[in-house]
Amino acid sequence: MVNGMSYALQKRILIILFLLVPIALLAVFALYPALYLVYLSFMSWDGYSPDKTWAGIGNYKEVFANKEIWGAFLHNLVYLGWGLLQNALGLFFAIMLNSKVKGRNAYRVLLFMPYIMNGVAVAYMFNYVFNSEYGSFNTLLHGIGLDSLAISWFGSPKAVNHVLGFITLWKFMGLNMVIYLAALQSVPSEIIEAARMDGASRLQTTLRVVLPNITKVIELNLFLTIIGTLEIFDLPFILTGGGPLGASDTFLTKTIDTAFKFNNFGMASAMSVTLITAVIVVLGLQRLATRRWSD
């Protein structure tokens, strides 16, 4: 005992003191902004006036009644589809490069390298690739006689979101591969050898032994993919600005425009709360699906 305090009390006080700073930072930079966002979602505010008018659930009614907003949300689902393909390819290459392939370390570096590139640099690089006039992709199509397929990739409402989705796949697939590769290397080799000795083929071993042992990692990657695709902003903002005619707008670009272009911070806050709710619902469904699959 020190100064009449028991060891248990001293330990409790020390833990509380160590937690005060991170809890205070969490409250100031996370909890308070989140609560203030919910508060603003019920207000009518232009972003600079000192007066805020109570709007109730009017902002939410406007969000759910606005077809343009939910049309932009459907564009996010295109990214989600490419994100699922990105996960599948990352897992495929991880399985391939986890075996004794000649030059596998070089392949790992090549596949992971796009992820470490700056997002703005990637956007400008693909702007040259898919440029309708001098882009390398259209030049290739012309060179092999597929002139009819050479279109304005960023100017086509049907193609633009798929092009942007492909760019996200190219950039982030290497990250998925590295995460899956680390998970595969953590699977005990004894159970794989036991499955092989029991007569299981390589495909059966992968499906019945390896994948069930990395379910948590698959769930983590899907979690990151879903959040990333529902909150995509940088690529459409830099490459298309939401065009042509809003065809590449996402829910987040619409939210930013509502706040800073149309000075409707109340509705933008309601859109942000709606997006957060949508992310929670989708992640809950994903977690339920992965749990059933692992069981």
Automatic annotation (TrEMBL):
Domain ABC transmembrane type-1 residues, every copy: 72-286
Organism expressing this protein natively: Paenibacillus glycinis
Membrane topology: Multi-pass membrane protein
InterPro entries to which the protein is assigned, alphabetical: ABC_transporter_permease, MetI-like, MetI-like_sf
PANTHER family on file: ABC TRANSPORTER PERMEASE PROTEIN, INNER MEMBRANE ABC TRANSPORTER PERMEASE PROTEIN YCJO
Pfam family, one: BPD_transp_1
Keyword Cell inner membrane: no
Cell compartments where the protein resides: Cell membrane
Keywords: Cell membrane, Membrane, Transmembrane, Transmembrane helix, Transport
UniProt protein name: ABC transporter permease subunit
